[in-house]
Amino acid sequence: MSGVTALRRLAQRSLRTTNATFKQQPQQKRLFASxxxxxxxxxYPWQDPTNPGNWKEEHLVFVILGGWGVVIMGGKAALS
Length: 80
What we know:
Helix content: 55-70%
Strand content: under 5%
Number of strands: 0
Number of helices: 2
Radius of gyration: 27 Å
């Protein structure tokens, strides 16, 4: 029985120290990685198709990967 009570005391002590540690740390405000002074990005590439500089980075990745897919599949079709 003494082993169980020792484990219980250890668990309670570690819980108290963990809670105290979390309460002492200041809360960080989570922000996006973008520049707050940057011009706003468009939600969809077809809203401003002629200006890729206003697209979100995810849209550029999709367009680049799609372009590589077209090149690879076109090369595969041309060589077979």
